[in-house]
């Protein structure tokens, strides 16, 4: 998100350096318009626009980065939870005898490869 916002701020600097004046509100609207169309971002946009004249580039940047970091953290936590649950399910659904059988077969194969007889 910071790179995304940074690209707009960089563009504003280039336009200003070229001698043109660009109001912050235009950059704010451009950034808001560029956000993904999803429930969470639509709510964020509405809340930011409700600030009216209190909405500055600094406020916008801080809010967007905060929401992005929070949603990324939740997304990563969800992935970890799903992985942990799938690992637990795999442990409970795999019969233990099949694990022991595969281990025994693995030992026999190792001994046969070395030319030794398997221990019994």
Classify the helix fraction into a percent range.
over 70%
End-to-end Cα distance, whole Å, is: 62 Å
- Estimated radius of gyration: 28 Å
Overall pLDDT confidence: 76
Structural category is mainly alpha
Overall geometry comes to: extended
Number of domains: 1
Could you describe the largest sheet, including whether it forms a barrel? none
What's the structural blueprint in terms of helices and strands?
Blueprint: H1 2-17, H2 24-34, H3 39-49, H4 57-93, H5 96-113
Written account of the structure:
Helices cover 78% and strands 0% of the residues. The protein is an all-alpha fold and 120 residues long. It has one domain. 4% of the residues are buried.
Throw out a few tags for this protein:
extended; 120 residues
Report a brief summary of the structure:
The protein has five helices and no strands. The protein has 120 residues and is mainly α.
């Amino acid at each position: 998100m910071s790179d995304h916002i940074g690209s707009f701020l960089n563009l504003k600097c280039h336009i200003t350096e070229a001698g043109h004046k660009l109001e912050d509100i235009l950059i704010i609207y451009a950034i808001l318009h560029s956000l993904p169309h999803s429930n969470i971002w639509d709510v964020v946009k509405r809340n930011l626009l409700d600030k009216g004249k209190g909405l500055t580039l600094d406020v916008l940047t801080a809010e967007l980065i905060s929401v992005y970091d929070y949603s990324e953290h939740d997304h990563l936590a969800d992935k970890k939870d799903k992985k942990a649950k799938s690992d637990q399910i795999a442990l409970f659904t795999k019969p233990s005898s099949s694990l022991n059988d595969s281990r025994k077969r693995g030992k026999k194969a190792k001994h046969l490869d070395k030319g030794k007889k398997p221990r019994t």
